[in-house]
Design brief:
Length: 114
């Protein structure tokens, strides 16, 4: 009977360790994005993760999960200026607004702060 209890305890501990490890690297809670001449963008990363039910690929299908990647891809001509904002941010926010769901800004100056 003791052997079964020990195996059960080990199993529960392993599950707990893997669950904690899965939550560890979710990126920064808040990120400041380079908004060029319009002013930087305070991006509530964790708030977006929650709203998207941790579906990272909803945004990260366009760029890797790596600090500074958007600026890097723009410098390499792999992303056009405003491409992420126009294809991801605004489209998502407008779609949510049309569904009657509380959402983020839908105009430039609501995000860009000088």
């Amino acid at each position: 009977m003791k052997a079964k209890s020990v195996l059960l305890l080990i199993g529960v501990l392993l599950i707990a360790v893997f669950a904690v490890a899965a939550e560890v690297n979710k990126g920064a809670a808040d990120i400041t994005l380079n908004g060029a001449t319009m002013g930087n963008i305070a991006f509530p990363h964790q708030e977006h993760q929650t709203a998207l039910n941790d579906d990272c690929m909803a945004c990260h299908d366009m760029f890797a999960q790596e600090a500074g990647i958007i600026d890097k891809l723009k410098a390499e001509d792999k992303l056009k200026k405003k491409e992420v904002m126009n294809k991801k941010c605004l489209n998502c926010h407008r779609a949510k607004k049309n569904e009657g769901v509380k959402t983020g800004p839908t105009s430039c100056t609501e995000c860009h702060k000088k």
